[in-house]
Amino acid sequence: MKHINDISNKSREELIELVNLLNDKSAKLEDYNKEALKRYELIGDHIPGAIYQYRLYSNGTSCFPYCSIGIKNIYGVTPEEVLNDATPVFKVIHPEDLERVNKLIFESASNLTVWRDTYRVNLSEEKTIWVEGFATPQKLDDGSILWHGYLHDFTQIINYQQELINTKKIAEANEFRLKLAIDSGGFGVWDWSVKENTMLWNKRMYELYGIDESLFTNNLDVWTNGLHPDDKDRALDDCNSALFGNKEFDLTFRVVHPDGKILFLKANGVVIKDHNDDPVRMIGINRDITESIQAENEIKKRENLLRESKILLQSIIDSTEDLVWSVDLNNFELLSYNKAFIRFFSKILGVDVKIGMTPTELLKRKELYDLWYGFYDNAINNGNFIKEYKLSTTDMYLLLNFNLLIKDEKIFGISVFGKDITDIKRKEKELLDYQENLELMVDERTLALTEEIKLRKTIEKELSDSEKRYRDLVDKSTSIVLEWDTSGEIVFLNRYGLEFFGYKEKEIIGKNVLGTIVEAFDETGEDLESKMKIVQKQPENFYSSENQNIKKSGEKVWIAWTNKRINNEKGELIKTLSVGLDRTKQHDMEKALIQYQNKLEEMVEARTTELSETNKELIISKEKAEQSDRLKSAFLKNMSHEIRTPISGIIGFVELLSQSEVSDDERKYYSEIVNKSSERLMNTINDIIEISKIESGDMSAKLQEVDLHELMAFYYDFFNPQATRAGIKLFIGKQVETRDSLIISDRQKIDGIMMNLLKNALKFTMEGYIEFGNYIENDFINFYVKDTGIGIPEDKKEDIFNCFVQVNIELNRHYEGSGIGLSIVKAYVKSLNGEINLESELGKGSIFTISIPYMPCL
Question: What is the DSSP letter of 346?
């Protein structure tokens, strides 16, 4: 028992000791737990974001049993404020995100899966942050769900992501713009790996080098093989220099396509090097500058042409005897002048001309330079004008043409062209004097025929020469310069041309000449539309032409054009250069002169009628004088060649015959020419005598017995040798019977008729035959001459019977003769109360038939 008690006491003591020990351990464990909890709270308070426990009860309420102090930065609340109620947290979640957050919480609670979400929290009206949270759920015994999780501010990462998205968008946009710029600019892009010698090209590069992408060799050779042989060495040198840092890669070169086409390319590139400064890559672009190079070459070509044109223009100006000069608007000081201007002032006024001189310095006398200041002021105030000016110190006349010099639509000076028209004025005065004494000249004209012919020819030649010089002056002064292409489109019209036609440059450039400055038909009915189409294709065939043009205002003008073709490098026509001169005034003057001449003739005729009423003899004399005057006028227009040519031959070859060193053969040959020329002159004189008789009315028939068979035989014997020499068959066709061959008529006039018809047939028949003869029909004896000659156009059949007309006179003078043979025939037939009939076809021949009354010899 004692033992038991002892044991019990001992056990009690041990138990007390054990309890004390347990109490001590429990106290230490509690202290340790407090220390651990303190450390956990310290850690939770100092890590970024917040650690937490979130509890959701089955009734839908919730709270945060634990959360670190970092929740203040996440939701703007303290741990104490949400210890029992989580409502303050859900109030600050962004309204657009709140529904999704709650949905994910309930899905996590239902499936006990990890909750994870990123959402926005509105800490204030000005500040919103992005929060990322994740937590692991735990289901408690009471059915509530407890999440253990972590929250942190995700705003910076979201911003980084957004910046990354924006940066990517910008990069993509820049890449698109770069691609668009490369594609629209036609840039070829290349990338050459120097060490591996591999080449990358974009699509445009294949087009620039004319290479099929499937045949691309993928190395530098594809570039060097396409280089023009003359550019290859230079291009490779520039490439090497760029690789080793000696210069930038900036190169212009040519490439040759497989089909031979050549392009000019501009290349730029940059070299990429490694850390050892060794080149590893070269990246660059190519672009086609062929059109630019061609444009530059065309500009240079035009500049050269402009320089040559200026030199040529100055040479032309200096070579003319007309005065050419220009002045500025500052006191009208001299800007330029030609050599004729220098000679004029030196010879006439004794002035040494210099650039910058004023009218006061040039002319010295006040009345002279005041007059010229007035001329220049008139040009400025009223525009271009023409003025006749007589020098006060001499009898010299000048035709002055004042033109404004305009650049950029501003007047900067005046150009003047001075033409010496002293001879023209003198001839005008002589012509006026001649016209005033016309009636007296008519009375004296018959006796002074020869002298009058010489005088008239001299006057006509001088007037013709004067007109030519005047026309040259106008061509070299105010001229229209027009360029138009093969479709008729106007490419260029100079300033004078624009002002002349009344257009602005933008109104007419690019328009067709037809419908702008040329109408389809002119006032004479000429088809200008067809003519323009021929000129624009073959300008060389219309080197000089004159036609009617029209201004913008509708005013019709006459222009003398000089046309020259402009070719490209292949010699193909691309444009026509036309230089035009206004001929409207001259055209109107010519019409007025014709009208004046007609009026003058009417006046002479009226005067003649008046004289005839007072004195019959004076009328007869007047008529004969007028007849002589008409004959003389015809001589002036048509006979000069027929008289001068044989006379020149006679004089020239007689002079050769008088030389002692002439051989017998030459003397015989020269004598034959003199004889032929004499015969030709005699025939012409005989024709003149016959036509004079006709014009004077001396046409009475001298009737006698005529043997038609004898006549035909005579004509055959006379003309057959000539026909044989010409290789032409001559024969008698129809003839009247022998019993009817004796008639009563004028033998001389029948001879004149038949001889002239046969001479004409021989003259105008190159090959074939000539048939002549006679026959009786309806109480008329018909004489005919039929040939296979050149024939007569339908519109000339009436004209050839007029004095001095040959059918080919508009073409040339291949055929000798006075041109009055058929006029004589017509007059003789009329005197015999007969008629003439003509049948002819151009190029096939003619048949002349003469019908006179048949009067047999009884």
Answer: I
- Asked if residue 505 lies in contact with residue 479, where contact means CB atoms within 8 angstroms, the answer is no
Which two three-digit tokens encode residue 37? 């909890």
pLDDT score, position 184: 54
Q: Can you read off the two tokens belonging to residue 337? A: 């002048």
The C-alpha atoms of residue 481 and residue 313 are separated, in whole angstroms, by: 13
> Which of 106, 68, 74, 75 is closest to 89 using CA atoms?
75
Phi-psi region of 779 (alpha: psi -120 to 50; beta: other; left: phi over 0): left
Phi first, then psi: what are they for 437, rounded to 5°? Answer: -105, 25
As beta bridge partners, residue 389 has 398
Report the length, in residues, of the chain.
858
Rounded to the nearest 5 degrees, what angle is found at the Cα of 584, between the Cα atoms of 579 and 586? 105
Helix ranges (H only) for 615-746 are 616-634, 640-657, 664-696, 708-725
What token pair was written down for 202? 């974009």
For the range 420-423, what are the long-range contacts, defined as Cβ-Cβ under 8 Å and sequence gap of 24 or more?
Answer: 420/321, 420/322, 420/396, 421/388, 421/397, 421/466, 421/470, 422/395, 422/396, 422/397, 423/462, 423/466
Tokens of 701: 């028939």
Residue type, 743: I
**What are the backbone dihedrals phi and psi of residue 519, each rounded to the nearest 5 degrees, phi first?**
-90, 165
Give first-to-last CA distance, the chain, whole Å.
226
CB 746 within 8 A of CB 702: yes
Cβ pair 742, 707 in contact under 8 A: yes
User: Nearest-CA neighbor of 194 among 261, 243, 136?
Assistant: 243
Instruction: Provide the pairing of β-strand 115-122 with 188-193.
Output: unpaired
Tell me the DSSP string of 105-141: HHHHHHHT--EEEEEEEESSSS-EEEEEEEEEEEE-T
Sole residue written with tokens 């080149």: 279
Distances (CA, A) of 340 to 343, 346, 351, 803: 5, 10, 13, 47
Question: Could you give the 3-state DSSP secondary structure of residue 8?
Answer: helix
d(CA 742, CA 857): 5
For strand 729-732 and strand 573-582, is the pairing parallel, antiparallel, or unpaired?
A: unpaired
Which residues have CB under 8 Å from 344's CB, separation 6+? Answer: 323, 418
Locate 192 and state its tokens.
């050459």
The encoded tokens of residue 401 equal 């043409």
- Beta pairing, strands 769-777 & 729-732: parallel
Q: Which two tokens stand for residue 280?
A: 């590893």
- The pLDDT score that the predictor gives to residue 811 is 37
Question: What is the structure's pLDDT at 3?
Answer: 46
Question: Do 838 and 848 touch, CB atoms closer than 8 A?
Answer: yes
CA distance 337 to 314: 10
The Cα–Cα gap between 797 and 104 comes to 120
Which pLDDT score is estimated for 361? 86
Q: How far apart are CA 207 and CA 263, in angstroms?
A: 11
| Alpha-carbon distances of 516 from 282, 490, 570, rounded to whole Å | 58, 10, 31
Q: What is the pTM of this model?
A: 0.29
What single-letter DSSP state applies at residue 818? -
Q: Give the per-residue pLDDT at 64.
A: 95
**For 408, left (φ over 0), alpha (ψ -120 to 50), or beta?**
left
CB of 542 within 8 A of CB of 563? yes
- Residue ranges with strand state E in 10-127: 50-56, 62-67, 115-122
Spell out the residues 6+ positions from residue 667 whose beta carbon is closer than 8 angstroms to its own. 657
User: What are the 10-residue block averages of pLDDT along the chain, 858 residues in total?
Assistant: 47 60 59 56 67 92 92 91 93 93 93 93 90 93 92 85 73 59 71 88 88 83 89 90 82 91 91 86 90 86 79 74 88 88 82 88 82 87 87 81 89 88 82 70 58 64 56 55 90 90 91 90 86 85 86 90 88 88 82 76 76 63 58 52 56 63 69 62 63 61 87 89 92 92 88 89 93 94 94 82 51 50 85 91 92 89
Q: How far is CA 41 from CA 34, 47, 71, 224, 697, in A?
A: 10, 10, 13, 76, 158
- What pLDDT shows up at residue 688? 66
